[in-house]
Amino acid sequence: MLLYLFYHVLQPYFHALNVFRYITVRTALASLTALSITLVLGPWVIRRLRDLQIGQFIREEGPKSHQAKAGTPTMGGVLIVGSTVVPTLLWGDLENDYVWLAIFTMLIFGMIGFIDDYSKVMKKRNLGLSGKGKFALQIIASCGVAVALLMLTSTGAYSTQLSVPFFKNFHPDLVIHSLLSTHYLWWFSYIPFLIFVALVIVGSSNAVNLTDGLDGLAIGCVVVAAGALTVLTYVTSFARFSEYLDIPHLPQVGELTVFCGALVGSSLGFLWYNAHPAELFMGDVGSLALGGSIAMIAVAIKQEILLFFVGGVFVLEALSVILQVLSFRLTGKRIFRMSPLHHHFELAGWSESKTIVRFWIAALVFALFSLTTLKLR
Fold first, then answer.
1. Distance between CA atoms of residues 196 and 127, nearest Å
2. CA-CA distance, 78 to 147, in Å (whole number)?
3. What is the DSSP string of 71-112?
4. Measuring CA to CA, which of 111, 293, 315, 333 is 20 to 30 A from 303?
């Protein structure tokens, strides 16, 4: 909106406004706008949620210190979603398909989380949608994203080939082109791509959701991951950088840098209120939206595998739950004192603040490592 006003309408009369054509400028402005919106609206959102008696329910089997958090306003993720979408609409190029796909992904996963959170509030228990119901909605939404990306391949704006870290000349294609000419089986050629995208997006959204168990833990890790993705998105869209780093060059994904900047800004603003002791929780509406958006960006810029390093903390949290369940079902014994992983360290004697900061440090290390892999090919 503002891009159109400043660059397309006013720029011919005021040449200084030519600066708004640069993605880096608009990314910075989107980040500052998102941060400002979150900081300004945060107190009002907290008061409104308290008035509506939308408070967090704490499971009894967790660390006892968490029981004091019962009643803290939740569903604050609506603030993150709004503070990300609005600056993207203001500073992004609305003629770019990737901008709308990013907004769609955040909104649809936020809506799934909203339904889950609302169900918890109505039931007055820490139980929302059934596991199967939530997974089904996430899979459908992920497949919708995958289909949209497939449509972009026809214009050359997207590629279904994988970019594999450490392997310079290995780019497997997830579409079976030999079947495209087959009259009855052409649709089967796209199934591997649909499954892969669904696994990445659903896995990421649930991993962030599992990490959201301590004050500021998940949102702090999101700030780090979104910051790394901002860099990755920009270099992917910039021909000189992508050629030097030998990564796929996709010019149109450059506008996702603006979305990433807004995501960083809104996450930083939310951390202001979510830092220990938290005044506001994001709820599933925030964690699912954030996880889905991060994964969508990684898929769009062809760094799906690198996402495992960018979001290393999220991966460890999810793996701890998977391993705990498998171990208990197969042997009747638990590997960790409690899962997700952050609860294990709490029960091991780490204070909540120490656990949070140390996980943030780990997230930063993972993100920095992921950026170094760009040249290790």
1. 29
2. 26
3. T-B--THHHHHHHHHHHHHHHS-TT-HHHHHHHHHHHHHHHH
4. 111
| CA–CA gap between residue 342 and residue 320 (Å, rounded) | 9
Q: Indicate the DSSP class of residue 332.
A: S
Rounded alpha-carbon distances, angstroms, from residue 190 to 88, 154, 175, 199, 269: 31, 14, 5, 14, 40
CA-to-CA distance for 199 and 305, rounded, in angstroms?
12
CA torsion 16-21-22-26 (nearest 10°) is 90
Residues present in the chain in total: 377
Rg of the chain taking only CA atoms, in angstroms: 21
Q: Give the whole-angstrom CA distance, residue 81 versus residue 285.
A: 8
Report the C-alpha gap between 262 and 81 in whole angstroms: 10
213 to 92, 185, 209, 291, 356: CA distances (angstroms): 33, 45, 8, 15, 10
Place of tokens 């497997």: 172
Q: Which two three-digit tokens encode residue 207?
A: 């991993």
Rounded distance between C-alpha atoms, residue 148 and residue 105, angstroms: 11
188 token code pair: 């089967």
pTM of the model: 0.92
In one-letter notation, the amino acid at residue 301 is I
* Per-residue pLDDT, 18: 76
Instruction: Determine contact, residues 204/291, Cβ cutoff 8 Å.
Output: yes
What angle, rounded to 10 degrees, do the helices at 217-237 and 191-211 form?
Answer: 140
Query: Rounded to whole angstroms, how far apart are CA atoms 90 and 244?
Result: 32
Residue 256 token pair = 């996702």
- What is the distance between the alpha carbons of residues 254 and 154, in angstroms, rounded to a whole number? 19
Residues with pLDDT less than 70, the chain:
4-5, 7-8, 10-11, 55-70, 123-128, 178-185, 376-377
